[in-house]
Write a structure and sequence with these properties.
With 185 residues, the protein is α/β, with parallel strands linked by helices. The protein is 30% helix and 9% strand. Helix 2 (44-47) links the parallel strand 1 and strand 2. The chain is elongated. It starts with 16 loop residues before the first helix and ends in a 5-residue tail after the last helix.
């Protein structure tokens, strides 16, 4: 048995129609022969054809949790022109925790059992008590003014490049700071 490794990454929004067609055709040729296909976001060519029965499509969900609606549970994720199910050929969707199973099964219109809470390796370190204690100690050494206050970590979601805060976000941050200044760092 030969093992072939291909890594295809293309932002279809940045490709011309001809380039997108070429990438899709190249993928379809590989897809027809693949035993396993791993993806980390929607990829329409995976669902746009009949899948070989021996091919397994594994969606390595890119989020460590679920803080918003997604897929068919919101109007923004699935192109209106797409008539099929974007997720129809998925055999396994890995998620970080059991609480994510229901929302993703619903949002992806998948059968029960396809979405499974396997955990996400990049978060394993957060369950190491010694590492967490060391980080906390280092943080308070660097920012002693935060001691005895509630620390809020604000991370706006974006799968795109980080950006400058919008005016409403700046206004909201100023409001939080002025309202809770005594207790919040």
């Amino acid at each position: 048995m030969q093992i072939y490794k291909y890594r295809l990454f293309h932002d279809y929004g940045r490709l011309s129609a001809i380039q997108a067609l070429w990438v899709s055709v190249k993928f379809m040729k590989l897809y027809a022969q693949a035993r396993y296909v791993f993806i980390c976001d929607n990829f329409l060519p995976v669902a746009s054809c009949r899948k070989n029965k021996r091919t397994k499509v594994i969606q390595l969900w890119h989020s460590c949790g679920l803080l918003k609606k997604m897929g068919y549970d919101t109007a923004e994720d699935v192109p209106r022109f797409y008539l099929g199910n974007v997720y129809k050929n998925y055999d396994l969707v890995t998620v970080s925790a059991p609480c994510c199973i229901g929302p993703l099964t619903s949002g992806m219109h998948l059968r029960p059992g396809i979405v499974q809470a396997t955990g996400v390796s990049r978060t394993d370190i957060y369950f190491d008590k010694q590492w967490c204690d060391d980080c906390r100690a280092e943080f308070y050494q660097m920012y002693p003014e935060a001691a005895e206050k509630t620390v809020i970590l604000w991370l706006p979601h974006s799968v795109e490049m980080p950006r400058i805060l919008t005016r409403p976000e700046q206004k909201r941050l100023r409001y939080w700071k002025s309202s809770w200044a005594a207790n919040i760092w």
